[in-house]
Amino acid sequence: MNFDLSEDEEMLKALTERFVTNTYDHTTRRAFLAEPSGFSGKNWALLGELGLIAAPFPGEMGGLDLDATGIATVFEALGRGMVVEPLAEASVLAGRLFALTAPPALRETWLDDLLSGAKRLALAHAENGARNGLVWVETSAVADAGGYRLTGAKPYCIAGGGADGYIVSARLSGTPDQTEGIALFLVPAEIAGLCRRDWPLADGSIAAALTLDDVRISDIHRLDGGMAEIEEAQQFAGLARCAEALGIMERMFHDTLDYVRTRDQFGAPLGTFQAIQHRMVAQYAAIEQSRALLNLALVSAGGDRFAEAVNGARAWISNASITLAHEMVQFHGGMGVTDELAIGAGHKRLLVLSRWPEGPEAALDRYAGSVQ
């Protein structure tokens, strides 16, 4: 099977790599994370100018209609640069979900600003009871004259800090664990009754805890979708997270390879010790296995087994990436966990990617259920 990139995909890869090269080093990355939203607003605007924010959106809506291979190509390059701008959560997940489910009048109001990066959305779906990928929505939506009243809490809105609006899942009927009866609503950040508290994740990115206290929303803000649309959007976001994790694994491996080749111990470079060579080879093999599973997901795109392949890749890469990160940190010794090196930053980012929106065991359960 031919896995060579097309000419357009090569250009997209080169564009993303140029953004990383011109914008990122470890010092500037730390400065970007220190900004109030956990990333650089200037970089976000630049990503909009380059078309990378709009790329996952449908072509008829002004995007590039990026397919699975294009998404993986972009996010692997972003992972190698350890980019902190939340393209997966804001563009592939929330932005694309909005574009595919919003009524025309609402889409016209928001879409151009979303494509350019002038505005940003985040998905507010996970609740306290939603452990290990379980469906659990207690937030309620009660029909009101000309709209709805929303009440509930969404404590895990990833990349929600500084967002201009939130796609909120709320229950119209049924019990919290039922798939049916869930609707989606676009809730502007400044609306009355919405309280937001920002909090940092392990990697330094900013999530938001939302409390909705009788938030009144008009009919036009209800999106045409529910759990099925969220799960479909999460498939492509999961693919993007896998590709980003693979890029980070590659970056950490090559940084460590350079280190063990130059760091002397007992009068010889660390890389000359057979035990370290064997451990590095094992992690190289893990990277290649991860790439193979990602490629399986890419060739499954558009078919019935795409979700299965993404779940399988997530289950493997989540565990393999953390094992690799632990090894790379250990080879660097105490410096490996400091903020001075990209190794520690990569480890923290892989921790988040491996555990959100569910852990590897939940992804493995989904995979096992689909192949039975």
Shape: globular
Q: Which radius of gyration do the C-alpha atoms yield?
A: 21 Å
Structure classification: alpha+beta
The low-pLDDT segments are none
Count of DSSP E strands?
A: 10
Strand line-up of the largest beta sheet: 1-4-5-8
Strand content: 15-25%
Order of helices and strands: HHHHHHEEEEEEEEHEEHHHH
> Major sheet: size, sense and barrel closure?
4 strands, mixed
Number of helices: 11
- Give the termini separation: 26 Å
Q: Which percent bin holds the helix content?
A: 40-55%
Please state the average pLDDT score: 93
Note down, in words, how this protein is organized:
Strands 1-4-5-8 form a four-stranded mixed β-sheet, with helices on one face. The protein has a four-stranded antiparallel β-sheet with strand order 2-3-7-6, with no helix packed on it. A two-stranded antiparallel ribbon has the order 9-10. The model has no long low-confidence stretch (mean pLDDT 93). It contains eleven helices and ten strands. The chain is an alpha+beta fold. Strand 2 and strand 3 (147-157) form a beta hairpin. The two termini are 26 Å apart. The chain has helices spanning 7-23, 26-33, 41-50, 68-80, 87-101, 104-116, 227-262, 274-300, 306-332, 342-355, 360-371, and strands spanning 121-124, 140-144, 147-157, 165-171, 182-188, 194-200, 206-218, 222-223, 264-265, 268-269.
